[in-house]
Design a protein that fits this description.
- The complex is a heterodimer.
- By secondary structure, chain A is of the alpha+beta class.
- Chain A is 44% helix and 16% strand.
- Chain A folds into two domains: 7-97, Orthogonal Bundle (Arc Repressor Mutant, subunit A); 102-173, Orthogonal Bundle (Arc Repressor Mutant, subunit A).
- In chain A, the strands form three sheets. Chain A has a three-stranded antiparallel sheet with strand order 1-5-4. Chain A has a three-stranded antiparallel sheet with strand order 6-8-7.
- Chain A is elongated, with a radius of gyration of 19 Å.
- Chain B is mainly α.
- Chain B has a domain at 2-105.
- In chain B, helix 2 packs antiparallel against helix 3.
- Chain B is elongated, with a radius of gyration of 50 Å.
- The chains are: A alpha+beta, B mainly alpha.
- The interface between A and B is medium-sized, with 16 and 15 residues.
- Chain A: It comes from Conger conger (Conger eel).
């Protein structure tokens, strides 16, 4: 399945931040949704700003346009304001990207668990994200931090409880 | 303050058994990862051996295949261990279920016992006796009351019933007053032959 680029992607001015406030707002919104849908398509959970610069999202080779570093920062900052992004380090070089909120992931996981009659069972985190049973599930390959957050969200709802052991974590669903 | 209180209020629902299961599963995960590593290695070595054979280095290829064989065995062993672990996990889970079943049975048993304490056999017997007495008493009363009507009275009642039923007129619909449709007027014609006369009205009726 190939990624479907929005029309703006082949529109050169899209790659330059617009001075007009209204236009800029719209442009940023389009960039945000493009970034999120691209990450969703590629199942990306962490982004490195330097690498992002080279990724096809911000670098359209066909029309030879690139989004400048500062502009990428602006887009990322916008995403952070919307709660889709979190910086890992102070220098803002790496970030966590959440194209689905932890609660939604938690819901998906819990749906899978209850559909398979495995409520009241214990799981290792590895098993949930990398096990053979979850191969066809959307949350397969979920990064640890995201998995942990979604499980914490479930824990807050009383649907799960995290278990910490010497080597690694586990979870029990209720 | 509220936070501490909140945490205390909700005791952990994770049992010792859950922890044991988790430990087993973690072990299994490790084995699975190990398995993955070995199978990737195997694949690599197979390709390498092929390459060596192509280059005419038979000795080396043979050595590599020996190593591969050993790893194959390792893979089998880990597979066995994994299934052992999984069986253990299932055993524990099933034992937990059995425990719950027994608990349920126990509660049911206690409940049944308590209810039986309330209903002793003597009590039931006494109640049944009393009920029997009550029924007997009621029948006597019924007899007495029914007895106030003599056979003569009964006959009178029946006779009255008969009179009422006979006196009722059966209501019939009114007889129509208008003349009948044309059909009968044509009838005299074929009268000589009764067979046709019977047939014709039928045909006409169909036509209508």
């Amino acid at each position: 399945m190939s990624f479907e680029w929005p029309w703006q992607y082949n529109f050169p001015p899209f790659f330059t931040l617009q001075p007009n406030v209204d236009t800029r707002q719209k442009q940023l919104a389009a960039w945000c949704s493009l970034t999120l849908s691209y990450c969703r398509h590629r199942k990306l959970y962490t982004l490195d700003v330097m690498e992002a610069q080279e990724s096809p999202v911000f670098n359209n080779k066909k029309i030879e346009r690139k989004l400048a570093m500062e502009a990428i920062q602006v887009v990322f900052e916008e995403l952070r304001k919307k709660g889709n992004l979190e910086w890992i380090d102070k220098n803002k070089t790496r970030c966590l990207i959440m194209w689905r909120r932890p609660e939604e992931w938690g819901k998906l996981i819990y749906q899978w668990v209850s559909r398979n009659g495995m409520v009241n069972s214990v799981f290792t985190l590895y098993e949930l994200a990398n096990g053979d049973d979850t191969e066809s599930e959307e949350f397969h390959g979920l990064e640890d931090w995201m998995l942990l957050r979604s499980l914490q969200a479930l824990q807050a709802e009383g649907k799960a409880e995290l278990i910490t052991m010497d080597d690694g974590k586990g979870v029990k669903f209720f | 303050m509220g936070n501490i209180f909140g945490r205390k209020r909700r005791p952990t629902r994770v049992t010792e058994q859950d922890r044991a299961v988790l430990q087993l599963k973690q072990q299994r995960d490790k084995l699975r990862q190990y398995q993955k590593k070995i199978s990737i290695q195997l694949e690599k070595e197979r390709l390498l051996a092929k390459q060596l054979l192509k280059n005419g280095k038979k000795e080396k290829a043979l050595l590599l295949l020996k190593k591969k064989r050993y790893q194959d065995q390792l893979l089998d062993k880990t597979e066995n261990q994994i299934s052992n672990l999984e069986r253990m996990v299932q055993d524990i889970e099933f034992a937990q279920i059995e425990m719950k079943v027994i608990e349920g049975l126990k509660v049911g048993n206690d409940c049944l016992k308590k209810m039986h304490e309330v209903m002793s056999i003597e009590e039931v017997e006494r109640i049944m006796d009393e009920t029997q007495d009550g029924i007997e008493y009621q029948r006597q009363i019924d007899d007495m009351l029914a007895g106030s009507l003599t056979q003569e009275d009964e006959d009178a009642v029946l006779a009255e019933l008969e009179a009422i039923t006979q006196g009722e007129e059966v209501e019939l619909p009114e007889v129509p007053t208008e003349p009948l449709p044309e059909a009968p007027e044509e009838e005299p014609e074929p009268e000589p032959e009764p067979e046709r006369g019977v047939k014709k009205p039928e045909r006409e009726m169909l036509a209508v």
